[in-house]
Amino acid sequence: MFATLSDRLADTFRNLRGKGRLSEADIDATAREIRIALLEADVALPVVKEFVAAVKERARGEEVSQALNPAQQIVKIVNEELVTILGGETRRLRYAKSGPTVILLAGLQGAGKTTLAAKLALWLKEQGKSPVLVACDLQRPNAVQQLQVNGERAGVPVFAPSPGNGTGDPVAVARESLEEAKRKLYDVVVVDTAGRLGVDAELMQQAADIRDAVQPDEVLFVVDAMIGQDAVNTAQAFLDGVGFDGVVLTKLDGDARGGAALSIASVTGRPVMFASNGEKLTDFDLFHPDRMASRILD
Ligand code: GDP
Predict the structure, then answer these.
(1) What's the burial of 17, exposed, middle or buried (CB within 10 Å: 0-12/13-18/19+)?
(2) Residue 298's CB: how many other CB atoms inside 10 A?
(3) SS3 for 221?
(4) Torsion angle, CA of 234/216/291/42, rounded to 10 degrees?
(5) 270 with 106: CB under 8 angstroms?
(6) Longest C-alpha distance within the chain, in Å?
(7) Hey, whose CA ends up nearest to atom 20 of ligand 1?
(8) 231 among the known binding-site residues?
């Protein structure tokens, strides 16, 4: 991810090398290049505008540092702005002070939610927690079974409605699972919800009802990094319909240009918290804005 953006910015900064001091024209030309690089990476236009304006303003106002040449100074500013947009400091999970921590996953179908649920559960186990997965995606045929298979691979139990005995009501499943987790002393409950191919009111309402029933400590919006220009509308719809505290980017191993990550974090003001980058359950980790920014500017 971000390969094109990274190459484009490298070219831009190369043009500044050897300059003693940045003129207004240099700053304008650089800003234009950064704008093109971001647009090519599929970053949403309003986000690009805001980003470029911030970089320009700082480039003009920045104290001339003795230690850095003009090119390095611009790189530093772009780096800091990228880190800010992606959420600043690495945002860690907030665990409940007492009782099980509840994490609700929301997102479109195909975003990688079910896979992510198992990855997150395995990661939590490695952090010394005793997680349980809850199958509340009763919409998609096989979603429950897929979660059960993944849960088994991760060595994490899955609470799911028993076949033939299920109420078909995901809110009831979520509520009962939380009670069961309390009884059995599991300390993190990861709830997988239904996704649709597009944003729809019924899906939002169902996720909101589950949220109200289990009062999650964290709601995570799971989104395919390849989503491109649809990113902003989709994220905004989930923010309005369900609300979320952080973003999980999936399929970072694909050839996504990375714009979605920047657009979503910027438009929603929610940090990217986790990154999922492959089909294996271990292809998953905390997202570090500073490391990602450095990678872009490497
Ligand atoms: P859901 O509909 O949101 O629950 O999505 P799934 O978890 O079923 O994932 C949809 C498809 O994307 C599956 O084929 C997954 O194997 C695949 N997938 C999920 N996460 C990743 C990832 O990080 N990288 C890649 N390459 N594929 C992924």
Answers:
(1) exposed
(2) 9
(3) strand
(4) 0
(5) no
(6) 75
(7) 112
(8) no
Which 8-state DSSP code applies to residue 248? E
Phi and psi for 27 in degrees, rounded to 5?
-65, -45
pTM of the model: 0.92
194 known ligand binder: yes
Tokens representing 148 are 């059960």
- 90: tokens are 């690495």
Is 282 one of the annotated binding-site residues? Answer: no
Q: Who lines ligand 1 at CB under 6 A?
A: 107, 109-115, 195, 250-251, 253-254, 276-279, 283
Tokens of 115: 């896979």
DSSP 8-class letter at 161 = P
Each of the 298 residues of the chain gets a pLDDT tens digit; together they read 788 888 888 888 888 887 777 788 889 999 999 999 999 988 999 999 999 999 999 988 766 566 778 788 889 999 999 999 988 999 999 999 999 999 999 999 889 999 999 999 999 999 999 999 999 988 877 889 999 999 999 999 999 886 654 558 899 999 999 999 999 999 999 999 988 777 788 888 999 999 999 999 999 999 999 887 788 899 999 999 999 999 999 998 887 778 888 999 999 999 999 999 998 999 999 999 999 898 888 7
Contact 217, 246 (CB under 8 A): no
